């Protein structure tokens, strides 16, 4: 699709735009998640401690990857709003600000995370797994710039509707990762460190390719030549108004994982963390279509908001929830029906075989989690798209860090339901928090409609 067709697509029918943006995003995220599952499967062969170590490191890694995704979300929102407002120069400058910001943030956080890795892991209760966790983490976090820049560059392509190249870049990372994992872990006998090196090498290649498209081929709608950069505190603030809350949301998800892991250790030991880590990989796989749709909503909502088109904003929000829920029902059923077969993937060695029945139970219960997500995530992504990152953050804070942890604690320790109580609490908390976010989003769209009609006379478009 040409760059002019991409712009026509994101400024046209929101239903068509959401599908065209979401499907490539789903494909690329599916590849990433398949890598994550393959990573867990290969690491599981090293034993329960190694798999649990990945469970402890994953929340921290997601925080740092979230830095790139957060800056990317801020850039995506601002660029899309400027495209909707037909302000090409500001769109270019917004993209360049995001790239500069990604470099600054990467350097600062690389120093911080490497310096405090040991106390962080001890605080999380890594225990006997800390050796594995350290070996993995120093490599992954030492190359933070690669992951942050990758998130920002992908968002720049998405913001102008160029999903083809955004998908190709991510596909290269994921496929190469899947190929390199067993080679580095077992053939070269690097163990858990091999998994880390496979991830770094794959992401680096993807960054090189995206950089070539941006500055070598130069055929984007956006022109990211250095001459188009003009420092603007307003652009920086506008980007950070979405980037900071979006990054904090990732931190909230990671904090939730740390809290849940701690509850699991108290309720049933470190094996429970290994079980939860494996089962959540499957839940995250089922969430891919929802995140893909939500990412599309961010761009479409940004363009609609920039163009003061309340009808497209309203359609994007409602339509995304409908198709999201339909997909969730199907995937939730598949998880429930095939829980035992899925669990078998994580129990192919003697060291991990004992976990299979518990993983199957976890997947069965957590299949309901997928149904609790759509209305909340689409509302949050709509708020990010219109530049109201703080609203999205508050929804996530209420849903994940407050309601999910409170219900998990009550069901596990007060009601005495044990590990299943933790799973149930996460599900109920997610649904209740998402419902509050949905109601808030509906009120926001109604108010935006009134303002648009009063100021711009947009009654039907």
Structural write-up:
The structure is a single chain. The protein is an all-alpha fold. Helices cover 85% and strands 0% of the residues. It is built from 17 helices and no strands. The protein has helices at 3-11, 14-44, 48-84, 88-115, 117-124, 130-142, 144-159, 163-187, 192-217, 233-268, 270-306, 310-337, 339-344, 356-371, 374-385, 389-414, 419-456. Helix 12 runs antiparallel to helix 17 and helix 15 packs across helix 17. The protein is globular and about 65 Å long.
Give a short synopsis of this structure.
The protein has 17 helices and no strands.
Write the SSE topology.
Layout: H1 3-11, H2 14-44, H3 48-84, H4 88-115, H5 117-124, H6 130-142, H7 144-159, H8 163-187, H9 192-217, H10 233-268, H11 270-306, H12 310-337, H13 339-344, H14 356-371, H15 374-385, H16 389-414, H17 419-456
Helix pairs in contact: 2-3, 2-8, 2-11, 3-4, 3-6, 3-7, 3-10, 3-11, 4-7, 5-6, 6-9, 7-8, 7-9, 8-9, 10-11, 10-16, 11-12, 11-14, 11-15, 12-14, 12-15, 12-17, 14-17, 15-16, 15-17, 16-17
């Amino acid at each position: 699709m040409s760059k002019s067709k991409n712009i026509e697509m994101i400024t046209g029918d929101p239903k068509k735009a959401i599908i065209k943006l979401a499907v490539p995003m789903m494909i690329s995220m599916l590849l990433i998640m398949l890598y994550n599952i393959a990573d867990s499967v290969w690491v599981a062969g090293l034993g329960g401690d190694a798999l649990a170590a990945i469970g402890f490191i994953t929340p921290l890694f997601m925080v740092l990857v979230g830095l790139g995704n957060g800056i990317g979300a801020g850039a995506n929102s601002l660029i899309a709003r400027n495209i909707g407002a037909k302000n090409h120069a500001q769109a270019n400058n917004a993209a360049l600000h995001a790239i500069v910001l990604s470099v600054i943030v990467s350097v600062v956080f690389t120093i911080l995370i490497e310096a405090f890795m040991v106390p962080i892991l001890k605080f999380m209760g890594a225990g006997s797994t800390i050796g594995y966790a350290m070996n993995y983490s120093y490599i992954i976090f030492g190359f933070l710039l690669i992951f942050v820049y990758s998130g920002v560059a992908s968002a720049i392509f998405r913001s102008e509707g160029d999903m083809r190249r955004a998908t190709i870049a991510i596909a290269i990372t994921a496929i190469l990762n899947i190929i390199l994992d067993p080679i580095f872990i077992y053939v070269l006998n690097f163990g858990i460190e091999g998994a880390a090196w496979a991830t770094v090498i794959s992401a680096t290649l993807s960054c090189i390719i995206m950089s070539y498209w941006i500055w070598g081929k130069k055929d984007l709608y956006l022109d990211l030549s250095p001459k188009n950069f003009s420092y603007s505190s307003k652009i920086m603030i506008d980007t950070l108004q979405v980037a900071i809350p979006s990054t904090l949301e990732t931190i909230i998800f990671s904090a939730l994982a740390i809290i849940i892991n701690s509850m699991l250790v108290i309720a049933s030991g470190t094996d429970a963390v290994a079980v939860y880590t494996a089962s959540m990989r499957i839940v995250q796989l089922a969430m891919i279509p929802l995140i893909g749709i939500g990412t599309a909503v961010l761009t479409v909502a940004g363009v609609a908001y920039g163009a003061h088109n309340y009808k497209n904003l309203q359609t994007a929000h409602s339509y995304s929830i409908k198709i999201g829920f339909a997909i969730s029902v199907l995937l939730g059923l598949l998880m429930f029906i095939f829980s035992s077969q899925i669990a078998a993937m994580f129990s192919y060695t003697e060291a991990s075989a004992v976990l299979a029945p518990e993983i199957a139970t976890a997947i069965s219960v957590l299949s309901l989690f997928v149904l609790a997500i759509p209305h909340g995530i689409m509302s949050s992504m709509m708020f990010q798209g219109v530049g109201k990152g703080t609203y999205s953050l508050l929804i996530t804070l209420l849903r994940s860090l407050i309601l999910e942890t409170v219900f998990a604690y009550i069901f596990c320790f007060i009601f005495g339901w044990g590990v299943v109580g933790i799973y149930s609490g996460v599900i109920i908390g997610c649904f209740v928090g998402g419902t509050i976010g949905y109601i808030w989003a509906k009120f926001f769209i109604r108010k935006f409609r009134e303002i648009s009609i009063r100021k711009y006379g947009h009654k039907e478009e």
